[in-house]
Thiamine diphosphokinase (Rhizobium metallidurans), 216 residues
Amino acid sequence: MSQSTFTILLGGELHMTERLRAAVSGSRFIAADGGMRHALALDVRPELWVGDFDSTPDDLTAAFSDIPRKPYPAAKAATDGEIAVSEAIARGATRLILAGALAGDRSDHALQHLIYAVSLAEAGLDVLLTSGTEEAVPLIAGSITLDLPKNGLFSVPAFSELNGLFIENARYPLSDFHLPFGSSRTISNVAEGPVRFSLESGRAIVLARPYDLSGV
């Protein structure tokens, strides 16, 4: 993997799956506050640790005492995750894997990660959000292909009105579809294998559960 790929370790849930390990293999790592705990499970040593450290227990600090730290006050204008992403971009990141960005105890943080990922995609960055069992990829004007197994579940929540939406190789395909903002039409679909998405205009996110093969 290119040295311009960075995995940002965030504070949400992270399950050690084959897809997760394959995604982060060979990447560089930056930890955001309590997200450093995932470094233990992944057996990696991040090159930087940032945050206000309000969710970092003493034993974690001791375990990674050799990692360079960049502390920030609790009263700051950005989340620890956004600060970590900024540090990765400053180091030349073109692809970002936000590990621990989904689920967890803070739904406000999880939602912000999804919105932030779309803005990063619009800035030209390749972004994947993952919990190990669930993955998300921004969908903006253009095309993407998500490598999903047959019967893998996915949805396409939209952050705006969508125009010219195509979903191919799915149980419920769409062609040149207009999705009004707030519509649930693109929630709960089933992959027939790798799924191709194209969009003329709008902002959305593809949320997938590749290990859920229930097909419902």
Q: What stands out?
A: Helices lie at 18-24, 37-42, 58-63, 80-90, 107-122. The mean pLDDT is 92. The chain has two domains: 5-133, 139-209. The longest helix spans residues 107-122.
